[in-house]
Amino acid sequence: MLENTEVDVRGKLTDDQTRCVHYHSDNDIIAIKFKCCDQFYPCYSCHEELAGHVAKQWPKNEWNTKAILCGNCRAQLTIEEYMNSNHQCPNCKLPLTRTAAGTIIYTL
Predict the structure, then answer these.
(1) What are the counts of helices (DSSP H) followed by strands (DSSP E) for the chain?
(2) Residue 59 is part of which domain span?
(3) 84 exposed, middle or buried (CB, 10 Å; 0-12, 13-18, 19+)?
(4) Which of 21, 69, 73, 91 could pair with 31 in a Cys bridge, judged by C-beta atoms 3.0 to 4.6 Å apart?
(5) What residues are paired with 88 via a beta bridge?
(6) Rounded to whole angstroms, how far apart are CA atoms 92 and 22?
(7) What's the pLDDT tens digit per position in 20-48?
(8) Contacts of 93 (CB under 8 A, 6+ apart)
């Protein structure tokens, strides 16, 4: 279910828990793997500013893809796991943001 690995997170990071200049509350500890480039960014704004291309959304039939990274324990979650997590990492139990991985990234 969960996979803990080292992941390269790109973006305007402000700490080692994947907070960035755009999202930096206590709960902003996720990074999102973008479908368009297969790279992790802490938020849509970081991707928009640095990737050099338009973001593509994950269709619901691909929600079994590990595309969410917990910045605290580094567990990789599928989109489905994240959407069903009640905004809490199933591995370390810390609260996860409700805003950075919104419908801009995932097609409902």
Answers:
(1) 2, 5
(2) 3-83
(3) exposed
(4) 69
(5) 95
(6) 24
(7) 999 888 888 999 999 999 999 999 899 99
(8) none
Q: In this structure, is residue 66 part of a structural domain?
A: yes
For the segment 88-93, the average pLDDT, to the nearest whole number, is 95
Pairing mode of beta strands 66-70, 39-41: unpaired
Q: Is residue 54 part of a domain?
A: yes
Residue 46, H or E segment? helix 44-50
49-79 pLDDT per residue, tens = 999 999 998 898 999 999 999 999 999 999 9
Q: Give dist(CA 20, CA 108) in Å, integer.
A: 25
User: How many separate domains does the chain show?
Assistant: 1
**Complete DSSP assignment for 71-98:** TTT-EEEEHHHHHTTTTB-TTT--B--S
| 44 assigned to some structural domain | yes
Please determine, for residue 1, whether its predicted confidence score (pLDDT) is greater than 50. no
- What are 93's two structure tokens? 């139990």
Radius of gyration of the chain (CA): 12
